[in-house]
């Protein structure tokens, strides 16, 4: 297991020798002691990244693409290894961990294909007749900051497009889950990533370390996935050097089931939207709005599906629901349930925090959740479904849009004309229409309002790491 800092292709202890523990959330034991980066380590990583980028950016797009393709091949061959490490440090069930490792690897394949398609433009200026030439160039050194809920995929979703674009990166993984990103580094070396191009700095001095890097004149991009509150701080920090920001922030996803939906399809997909990654996902369905005519049928079937899930250590392949990542997250979920129940919600399933060890919370279904329940205002980030009913289409759309977030919404109806119209009325960066899963490396992932800025994946993902240059020419 790799536990030191990864700078310039070398494993180094932190410059001040500090380390911190990483825990297994299934049994609360210490998994590893990891080196903690300090300012001097950030400077070393910046020097290495600057030196590596000059050569990397000058390589042909095809040469960069082939390294990324090799990374996809190597990671795909080692999915069980990565899945095991993801489960050990994050807790998620084996199937979720395999799903994440597969998704994470796919970003290398997708961006190996995008690397050779940074299309520009050549056209005539309508009035002057000059030629307008547009090309995309690597934006510069990128600082990447990732959360603990997808220790592999949130990193590769940034590393792959950055490398495809010709940028070097320094990645600061979440302190709960730094091991997966460190484990990826030998694989990238084997794929042909040169020393210094990708550097990993776990740290307990997070705020000061990242702020220092955002103020280094060599840095041009900050790409962050995490909470809106930290994203806002980073945007302030990025403003001083006018950095190019990409922000993938929090969500509060509504899931709307109309009376003309196929209830079985809605239940099956609501299970995915709620329980993938045991609800610890920015895309997790947070507010269920079910039409009154089918509410009981939906709730009964959904509750049965939730009751069939097995909770336990995620390493056990029969387990569907592992522990939450830490005690704070588990306690926050429990507090949401207690608050909703105190305000009048009915518990249809779960709702009782089990004794430890391990940060477990059972699949929970709440119906008749009142409007003033805290879990409707904020991300639950756990295996709890909060169900309300509705009768009026315009009113439910207004309710769904009544949040500062705008990441993803889910809509279920068999009437496609209605469904597409509702999709357009929803103020969300992504909508799942009769689907509980929107994440796809080939699609632009991202939110509006306080859910973020920019897009990851799709064609847009690489542009986050490129600048557009326009040349006005005559010949
Ligand atoms: P978080 O507390 O915001 O932490 C995310 C990352 O930011 C971690 O690496 C953390 O480092 C770092 N960080 C914390 N304070 C910082 C500061 N002052 N300056 C610079 N970096 C700082 O979020 P989380 O609890 O790990 O993740 C859950 C959140 O992520 C949820 O809100 C979820 O919706 C969001 N998320 C969004 C997406 C998306 O694509 N939109 C995807 C996944 C998750 P330390 O660990 O060292 O504190």
What does this structure look like?
This protein has 475 residues and is α/β, with parallel strands linked by helices. It has two domains: 5-249 and 449-473, Aldehyde Dehydrogenase, Chain A, domain 1 (3-Layer(aba) Sandwich); 253-433, Aldehyde Dehydrogenase, Chain A, domain 2 (3-Layer(aba) Sandwich), CATH 3.40.309. 38% of the residues lie in helices and 21% in strands. The protein has helices at residues 39-58, 61-77, 79-90, 94-114, 153-165, 179-191, 206-214, 228-239, 263-275, 295-307, 327-342, 393-401, 416-425, 460-463; strands at 5-7, 10-12, 19-23, 30-35, 121-124, 131-138, 141-145, 169-172, 198-200, 219-225, 244-248, 253-257, 285-291, 346-349, 364-367, 384-390, 408-412, 430-433, 452-453, 466-473. A seven-stranded mixed sheet has the order 14-15-16-13-12-17-18, sandwiched between helices. It has a six-stranded mixed sheet with strand order 9-8-7-10-11-19, with helices on both faces. The protein has a three-stranded antiparallel sheet with strand order 5-6-20, with no helix packed on it. It is globular, with a radius of gyration of 23 Å. The relative contact order is 0.14. NADP nicotinamide-adenine-dinucleotide phosphate binds at residues 145-149, 154, 172, 174-175, 206-207, 210, 225-227, 230, 233-234, 248-251, 282, 379, 407, 447, 452. Residues 145-149, 154, 172, 174-175, 206-207, 210, 225-227, 230, 233-234, 248-251, 282, 379, 407, 447, 452 line the site of NADP nicotinamide-adenine-dinucleotide phosphate.
């Amino acid at each position: 297991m790799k536990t030191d800092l990864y700078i310039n292709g070398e494993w180094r202890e932190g410059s001040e020798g500090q380390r911190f523990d990483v825990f297994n959330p299934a049994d609360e034991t210490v998994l590893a002691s990891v080196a903690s980066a300090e300012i001097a380590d950030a400077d070393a990583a910046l020097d290495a990244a600057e030196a590596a980028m000059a050569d990397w950016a000058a390589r042909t797009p095809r040469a960069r693409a082939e390294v990324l393709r090799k990374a996809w091949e190597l990671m795909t061959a080692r999915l069980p290894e990565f899945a095991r490490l993801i489960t050990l440090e994050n807790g998620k069930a084996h199937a979720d961990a395999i799903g994440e490792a597969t998704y994470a690897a796919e970003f290398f394949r997708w961006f190996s294909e995008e690397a050779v398609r940074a299309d520009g433009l050549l056209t005539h200026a309508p009035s002057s007749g000059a030629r307008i030439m547009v090309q995309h160039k690597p934006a510069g050194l990128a600082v990447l900051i990732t959360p603990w809920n997808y220790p592999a995929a949130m990193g590769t979703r940034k590393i792959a497009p950055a490398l495809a674009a010709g940028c070097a990166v320094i990645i600061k993984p979440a302190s709960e889950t730094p091991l997966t990103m460190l484990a990826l580094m030998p694989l990238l070396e084997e794929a042909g990533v040169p020393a210094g191009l990708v550097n990993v700095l776990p740290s307990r001095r997070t705020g000061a370390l990242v702020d220092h890097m955002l103020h280094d004149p060599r840095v041009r991009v900050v790409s962050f996935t995490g909470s809106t509150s930290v994203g806002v701080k980073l945007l302030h920090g990025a403003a001083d050097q006018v950095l190019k920001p990409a922000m993938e922030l929090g969500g509060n996803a509504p899931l709307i089931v109309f009376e003309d939906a196929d209830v079985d399809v809605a239940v099956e997909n609501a299970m995915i939207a709620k329980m993938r990654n045991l609800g610890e996902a920015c895309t997790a369905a947070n507010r269920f709005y079910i039409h009154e005519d089918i509410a009981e049928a939906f709730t009964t079937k959904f509750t049965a599906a939730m009751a069939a899930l097995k909770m336990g250590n995620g390493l056990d392949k029969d387990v569907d629901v592992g522990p939450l990542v830490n005690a704070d997250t588990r306690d926050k979920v429990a507090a949401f349930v207690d608050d909703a129940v105190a305000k009048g919600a009915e518990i249809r399933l779960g709702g009782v925090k089990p004794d430890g060890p391990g940060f477990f919370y059972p699949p929970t279904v709440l119906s008749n959740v009142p409007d003033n329940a805290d879990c409707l205002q904020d991300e639950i980030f756990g295996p709890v479904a909060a169900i309300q009913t509705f009768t009026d289409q315009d009113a439910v759309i207004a309710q769904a849009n009544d949040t500062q977030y705008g990441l993803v919404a889910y809509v279920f109806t068999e009437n496609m004309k209605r469904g597409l119209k509702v999709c357009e009325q929803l103020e969300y960066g992504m909508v799942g229409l009769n689907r509980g899963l929107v994440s796809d490396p080939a699609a632009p992932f991202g939110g509006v309002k306080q859910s973020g800025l920019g897009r990851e994946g799709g064609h847009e993902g690489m542009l986050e790491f490129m600048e557009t240059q326009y040349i006005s020419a005559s010949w």
